[in-house]
Amino acid sequence: MANHYSIAEENYIKAIYHLQQTDDNVTTNEVATELQTKAASVTDMLKKLKQKKILNYEKYQGFRLSSEGKKIALAIVRKHRLWEYFLVEKLQFGWDEVHEVAEELEHIASTKLINKLDAFLGNPKFDPHGDPIPDVNGKLPSRPQINLIDLAENKQAEVSAVGSQSKELLELLKHKKIGIGTQLEIKKKFAFDNSIEIKIIGQAAFNISQQLAQTLFVKPLK
Amino acid sequence: MANHYSIAEENYIKAIYHLQQTDDNVTTNEVATELQTKAASVTDMLKKLKQKKILNYEKYQGFRLSSEGKKIALAIVRKHRLWEYFLVEKLQFGWDEVHEVAEELEHIASTKLINKLDAFLGNPKFDPHGDPIPDVNGKLPSRPQINLIDLAENKQAEVSAVGSQSKELLELLKHKKIGIGTQLEIKKKFAFDNSIEIKIIGQAAFNISQQLAQTLFVKPLK
DNA sequence: ATAATATTTTAGATTTGTCTAAAAATATTT
DNA sequence: AAATATTTTTAGACAAATCTAAAATATTAT
Fold first, then answer.
1. Tens digits of per-residue pLDDT, A68-121?
2. Is domain B146-220 in CATH 3.40.50.880, yes or no?
3. Lookup: nucleotide whose C1' is closest to B11 CA
4. Nucleotide nearest to A62 (CA to C1')
5. Residue of B80, B82, B116, B121 to mutate when probing chain A, most A C-beta within 10 A
6. Concatenated DSSP letters for B106-128?
7. Rounded to the nearest 5°, which phi and psi values hold at B137?
8. For residue B139, how many C-alpha atoms fall within 13 Å in the half-sphere facing its CB?
9. What is the CATH number assigned to the segment(s) B7-65?
10. Ranges of each domain in chain B
11. Closest residue (CA to C1') to nucleotide D25 in the complex
12. pLDDT value of residue A165
């Protein structure tokens, strides 16, 4: 309850948290790319975070968050996603325009604030991008969801999450009118380029690329 | 639309704005006291703000905000007071516990956010302390209010603002059960120590000090 | 296994905002 | 108006977070 961390530190912790979801060893360069900074700056910060016992780090060896580090990361993720929910549900932001603002809001320290916000929003379990919101103890809710590319042909499903928040992806999804909750089914998978033909309920079928299918997560219906 | 300022700069601008409401010339030491820092640090920042044309400053002469500086200050005040309103009206914070959190929230940059928040809250004109909220153009709403010390004996009035947000004052007000909207009247003024006897509608009369009366603002009833 | 390449770290600078101690300017007192 | 006190500014240092350029380590390719 005592400690708190600078915005720079929090951004590093969050970036490492996200990277270690897919990598078993996070590297200096990966963090540098993620945070749009230089490897030398990352090394400096790693030493600081190691000293604060937030990180298991030995030089040249890669690293992961300690359990303390994970706890901090989950608190930041919780704040980020609750603010995104607030922006979309209460302030009528588009779900594709909340990321930057939430990046700022997530650094507001008060835990009283975030817990009251959580209650005000009705303790939502998933943010507008379909990502799970950690609870007050850092526990993530689970939801049965699979990658769109793994959905069987002619099975209906509902979009439940997107794998990235990049401007480019969100622009494409907007254009295709795909969002969280969109119901669709796979009509055909093409072996040639791994593209798939999908059909949104009530619309004409169209093709999407393998890359796009891989960033979409769905919950099978029924 | 282009510029933005660091948190430190914004805090200086806001402090100077508040000080120049009562002083015609703001001094280095006043700002140092207000921001709990040292005069030397203030001088450094004054030079920077002068260079950015936010301040009319000549060394040893005192200073005031330029019109550009005033615009920035009003934008910060707007954010602060809208967030306070949000915290009290939507998140059920007590009106005496929102100041610190709002001090953090006021530095979130997005103007889109603050304008949408304003709309969500129903474009409130006064914050929970009774202070006026500047509109999108920095214009302050006016309300006929006078200092409690200037209220005539036996005239009823409603508390509309408090002159400070200090912990000490808010603690006292809470204990006396005085808040924005409290209806009261002056029973007697004592020349000896300038204390006054007031009576809250429906309660027994009691005495308050000159200092307290001077920090309370009221709107006469009918 | 050694050379070439890529990654990571170190060394030293820079910027922002702060500080202390001392000097300069202003204000007050006698 | 001189002496004293106060306020303000300067000078120099420091911590946080960043950078560039060079050195150290690790990886890969021949």
1. 999 999 999 999 999 999 999 999 999 889 999 999 999 999 999 999 999 999
2. no
3. C17
4. C8
5. B116
6. TT---HHHHHHHHHHTT--SB-T
7. -95, 5
8. 5
9. 1.10.10.10
10. 7-65, 146-220
11. A60
12. 83
